[in-house]
Write a structure and sequence with these properties.
The chain is α/β, with parallel strands linked by helices. It has a single domain, classed as Rossmann fold. The chain has 8 helices and 10 strands. It has a 6-stranded parallel sheet, sandwiched between helices.
């Protein structure tokens, strides 16, 4: 089985898009996919209920209730800030409990973080602590455009400094971006990071090596 924690170098870099494409491709390959965003902020109120748009996009049909997401906050701010404003403290232990339920029987597990690696979740824990608690290797999602080299390498360095494994860097590329420029970014990131750097454009098969890694479990 393959299991990952998906983080981003910044907000809006395509973290949910990459998670959704990974989940979609896993289902196409016949995998039972548990794709889960335990905490989401910026949720809309729909018919009196909170809707986590990212949670809905990535989840498999069989995921219901907390298996789609444990916490949904209205304001689009860091989880700790939203939780304190709503007086609804985030309980890491609850996240771990639901994770164990969701991963039972799953061939591919994807846990999407809220924001980047250092975004605070509680007074004592940031998003890196969630990945560490769940013992998941990390996929770092970055934009393909200008500025990505610095942000990507800083995030990779932070993950490695926390003694976590970086499974891959995935550049989420928009159709309007210059392919040659993206290739330059890939080369420069690769000079400082020896792991996998994947360009995701329109073809999700480039993600297959993450879904069915050589040697089995990741």
């Amino acid at each position: 089985m393959a299991r990952y924690f998906v983080t981003g170098t910044d907000t809006g870099v395509g973290k949910t898009y990459v998670t959704a494409r990974l989940a979609e491709r896993g289902r196409q390959l016949g995998k039972r996919v548990f794709a889960w965003k335990p905490i989401e902020t910026g949720c809309e109120l729909v018919n009196g209920a909170r809707l986590g748009a990212d949670q809905e996009v990535i989840s498999s049909e069989w995921q219901k209730g907390e298996l789609r997401g444990v916490y949904r906050f209205v304001r689009p701010v860091a989880p700790l800030v939203a939780a304190e404003e709503e007086e609804c403290p985030i309980e890491p232990g609850r996240i771990e409990e639901v994770f164990q339920i969701g991963t039972a029987g799953a061939d591919l597990t994807l846990v999407e973080g809220a924001g980047g690696w250092r975004v605070p979740v509680t007074r004592e824990l940031d998003m890196s602590g969630i990945a560490r608690m769940l013992e998941l290797p990390v996929i770092v999602v970055a934009r393909g455009s200008l500025g990505t080299i610095n942000h990507t390498l800083l995030t990779v360095e932070a993950v490695l400094r926390d003694l976590q494994t970086v499974a891959a860097v995935v550049l989420s590329c928009k159709p309007t971006e210059d392919a040659a420029f993206v290739e330059q970014n890939v080369r420069e990131i690769g000079r400082r990071f020896s792991g996998r750097v994947i360009e995701l454009w329109n073809d999700p098969t480039v993600l297959d090596e993450l879904i069915e890694p050589l040697g089995g479990q990741v």
